[in-house]
Amino acid sequence: MNDSESNKRKRFDASLKIEQDSVGKENVTKYVPLDVSIPSNMSVKRSRTEQFTGGVLARKQSTSVSENYIKTENMEVERPLQHPEHSGVKHERTILGDDKEYYESEGEESSSSEIINVDVDEFIEGSPFEFDYDNVRKSTLPVGERGFFAIDTMVRHFEQFDPDVIVDQHSKLKTKLMYNQMKNIHFMIHREKSEPFSGILADEMGLGKTLSVIAFILYQRQNDSFRVDYDGFMVKGADPLIGEFYEPVESRATLIVVPAIVLKQWQDEVKKHVGRGGLKCKVYDPKNQKKIYEVEDLLDLDIVFTTYDVVKAEYRKIVKYETLLKKRHSMDEEILAHIDELKDEIKRNESTLAGIYFRRLVLDEVHAIKRPNTILAKACCHLNGIKRWAVTGTPVQNTMGDFYSILKFLKVAPFDLRPHFNDITTGRSEKKMKAFNELVRCILIRSEKDLIDPRTKQRILDIPKRNIEDIHVRFGGLERRCYERMFYGMRKNVGVTVADMIERNGDYNAARVRGEHIEEDGAIKMSLILSFTTRLRQACCHMNMVSRVVDFDRLKPAEQGQEVTEYNEKAIHLMGSTQALEEEKDENASLGTTLKVIFSKEYQSAKIRAVLEKVKIALERGDKCIIVSQWTMMLDIFAGIFEKQGVRYEMITGRDPIPVRDERIETLNNDPNGPKIYLLSLLASGIGVNLTGANHMFLTDLFWNPAVEKQCFDRIYRFGQTKETFVYRFVCNSSLEEKVLDVQKKKEKLAFDVLCRKLKKNIEGYGFQDVRTLYNV
Coiled coil: which residue ranges (predicted)? Predict the structure, then answer.
């Protein structure tokens, strides 16, 4: 810095020593990133950053610098674009792999490595960190530089976070918090003190993320001063037909959006853990409630619960009305004459949630919005609230695109925009991967079941061990030949399709993840390949599951025992079925009898027999068992077998109403005289379900997404489990299922690298190259 710049900085520093209002706090020196001389008689306006923090910052800081200008008596000074070099005290940093000079505010750093208990009221009320995040949002730096600037800014402030601090037990909490939950609350308080006022709670399943969120809201309840200056912030919806808008009404409530199946569980957790008078809660679900809550009914609350279905439904209304507004100018006079008749209906259908600016938004099981272009993802991003939290044990399941969708909801600028996110997650740049890992470190907290509590030197979750085993199953003779006929028949068609599409679109999935245009024909062909693959995976479980899409006449060589040594494109017609098995004519002689057996529901396939053998062992021990499949057809086959044998069982799937599922889960967990066998849909098990009443689980078919499987396994291996648990996965030898294991390993590595901040290169999801591996083409 030359002499001229140094003198300018001194004048600038002297003119911007702003004292806080008289609340008994120490004076704080603030540095505003402006290389201009400021008149001494200036007045200062609060920034939007401070306006929208709610509570702490709005109450404790009455003065600050506007994000767009500094207002004086006679002039407005435009804020120039600032690089990190112009924001405070000189400081050497090497976080992003290159030596650069950055500037930051001076402050003391804690060097203690001990576990520190702090008074949470004092900690919450502390002065928020000085944060130049507005520069990040308004920066016109190139994509790459802007991203590095943003991450370095977050890192510098995150370094003020002491991970060894834990909060005291709250007097209104009836349940003693575990060590990881105390760490979570401290992290969440810290994150809400500086932009982006958001983060990801990613504890492993079974470690009480629900209680962490509830306790955090309780801790923050006393700081309920929440003032928002709606500086141009508006939500459309009041009367879009005439172009009117309204500003959302501020509420101190936290809006918690959950899957419908766990709505009751969240309510029960509040009642169980929070003392009387602790938190005021209501459920907003207009479709299933007699009382319709209006905006004013949801303001003076601590928590408003709603479901993803409600959020999506209300967003559809907004889209519908805004679309109508856009078309209004092109309507003819006859249509416009009838518009007034629609106004009353529109007002009745107004989105209540869109009319509220919540203090905080929480998305439980946030992977529900992992595809950012879906209506649900857009609906969640459209909700109003500056403080945002994503709760999930599996933030990355398939591709890095899953993480982008979360950042978009959290509004982590500039990575809530696809070009900026792609810049640090594509390619093999070590610098970019290091930057991404630092971003994760700043916004995500995760604990696993083997975490040691330093106070007790014990694991935080002290439950009996879990055993996971893969059982490899050999096909029966005719099953093997039928499967091979199907596989090789498909293989040739898949090979032609893959070669064609790679030539036209490159790798399908890589282009899709980057948000690039895909020829419609490419999407159709990829969908067809996935359908082929699904049929083969179903055939590994039981031939009956593909009976309606198989041409049995063309499986005749398999029945006759002919070996398959080459492609045979006439072996199977999966997408254009001919005769179904039950319509097969008697004259189909030698073929009919044998195939009719293995394709019938009553037949026990090799995999069915392997599962039943393990179930028998578990029942002999007096334990409860859960048989899991992603296909209800497979569960129906098991149900038929148990009914024929007179064995009691219950089924838990998405086909049943939620109250029925809740009742069956209650029986599983708490009724020792209930059935010992439960048939569970894989996808129904993946969302917030506690199944600790069972300690044996049998996964009959592999799923592409290993995170979904792990979620399912953790339903029996979590807090409250008192027995040793056993999990078995069944895999057919020399089949496509073995290749699915390879795909799972790739996805598991990606998820591990992201969560452990060890990402060295991005791994694309399932694409044409994976198809080539599956089919050896």
Answer: none
